[in-house]
User: Fold Glycerate kinase from Saccharopolyspora taberi.
Amino acid sequence: MPGHVLIAPDKFKGSLTAPGVAEAVADGLRRVDPGLPVRMAPVADGGDGTVQAALASGYRRVPVRVGGPVGEPVDAEIAVDGDTAVVELAAASGLALLDPAALAPLTATSAGTGELIRAALDEGARTIVLGVGGSACTDGGAGMLTALGARLLAADGTELAPGGGALADLDLVDFAGLDPRVTEAEIILASDVDNPLLGPKGAAHVYGPQKGADPEQVELLDAALARWARAVSSGDVADRPGAGAAGGVGYAAMAVLGARRRAGTDVVLDLVGFDRLLQGARLVITGEGSLDEQTLHGKAPAGVASRAVAAGVPVVAVAGRCQLSPDRLRAAGFAAAYALADIEPDIERSMREGAALLGDLGERVAAEWL
Assistant:
């Protein structure tokens, strides 16, 4: 059969990056057919791995040193192509940057994300894709805005300390010093989170506990975010789907930066030119560490399958483990799934030797589909 194989996986968290997964599967395919035309398009869902997907598709890497969630220096990177830049919140303000035993629910800040945006503007970006997810903070995006020039003041005129907890003392927000380049750029908020900013389904109540907040701190943060929202905007932005993304960074992005929210997976698929690479393909291989019910709700493999099926191209998935029944897989567009757990039940070895085992799965895919 003519046509190439398009390999478009997400990362296997804790084991392999998305480009690493793609290379391993390609190696297995080529063992069976050395001349097989293969194209690779590592993907992500707008969270961790979004910049890496852009870099793998040809974007230029720009290293940036910024402040981390509690102010410590962090070496991050953005991806730039012409006047478009990709910024990943997790690289600067991510929960994974903190010691799990030393989380900072009240004081963690999104300031580093604002520094990444500023670096993108310095590179001449006119369109900035802001991938959010996995944040350590619940500060409503206040830190992000202060890094871009806003000032947050208490009643006595002093500037607030970083973090969502300090917003309880907010009296005035001064946007006079906000970097004017921000308002001239198009900001795309890449997020599948549809939570509002406040209330029982808001940023503090739903995601605060994951960031170390106890019940009392959750209530404090929710009240502080309400005070923040009243000071920033008189409109209904706080109620919009996605305002609660990344501890409220979604709110600040939409209310102040004029960001437009799009599904993260769709944004990344467009960034890497997935539809163009799909043309003429005979098979698509996607996947992630765990294929489960979450996969079907906005995760990258589901987005890949949806577009491939619409183009009439069969899709198979590779995964560390698969918890979906054959019927659920078929309903989501997957013709088959291949899991590392089927050939290596030892989870630690499976994660440690993921590349070699994925090569073996690639051989099976080639033998059964090509």
In short: Residues 50-265 form a domain with the Glycerate kinase, domain 2 fold (CATH 3.90.1510.10).
